Amino acid sequence: MNENGDNYFRSMQYFHKTYRKFCQQAVEEYHFTPGEVDVMAFLSNNPGMNTAADICRFKNISKPLVCRSVEALARDGFLHPVTDERDRRVIHLHLTAKADQISGRLRRCRADFFRQLMDGISAEQFAAFEAVLDRMQENLYQLLSSDCRMNTEDIHNQCTQKEGNHHE
Fold first, then answer.
1. In contact, 95 and 40? CB cutoff 8 Å
2. Cα–Cα–Cα angle for 138, 143, 145, nearest 5°?
3. pLDDT tens digit sequence for 117-161
């Protein structure tokens, strides 16, 4: 087992990059930017989450990039922003009828990507993988909710101990 999780981190980066490419190719004739595709795919696949803050948080995309993408999609008629009735600071993002075909393509793209990703993986293997992911998510919530933070000096000391002080 790799105690640093190198394979896991590489796999997650590759997973994200490949999925983004799949989505981009599914709607390439529209000439959307990658940010616009991310916004539309997120809204298509997550009907209960429809604010820019949701997109930033769950897709790990910067606020300025999400704002530019939302503005472009709204300008081009693919997205309709609606102010929340209870909290005027919150803007809900709704895909328009013009986006229906694209939204359907992006949902099919996700299903096709997942189907291809799972090729050769049994139901039992996937269930075990999901159990591990669930546990990792619980650990992440614990890390985020605790006040255990390492300062940069601690991290530096740990790194130099493992590397055997090769920097000298």
1. yes
2. 95
3. 999 999 999 999 999 999 999 998 898 888 655 554 554 555 455
Q: How far apart are CA 87 and CA 151, in angstroms?
A: 37
Distance from C-alpha of 81 to C-alpha of 50, rounded to nearest angstrom: 10
Contact partners, residue 95, CB within 8 Å, separation at least 6? 40, 43, 44, 78, 79, 80, 103
Residue type, 119: D
Residue 157, token pair as written in the block: 């000391």
Diameter of the chain measured on Cα atoms: 63
Q: Which two tokens stand for residue 98?
A: 């013009």
User: Counting every residue, how long is the chain?
Assistant: 168
Distance CA 120, CA 126 (A): 10
pTM for the model: 0.77
Residue 64 to residue 154: CA distance in whole angstroms: 33
Distance of CA 60 to the CA centre of its chain: 6
Residue 125: strand, helix, or coil: helix
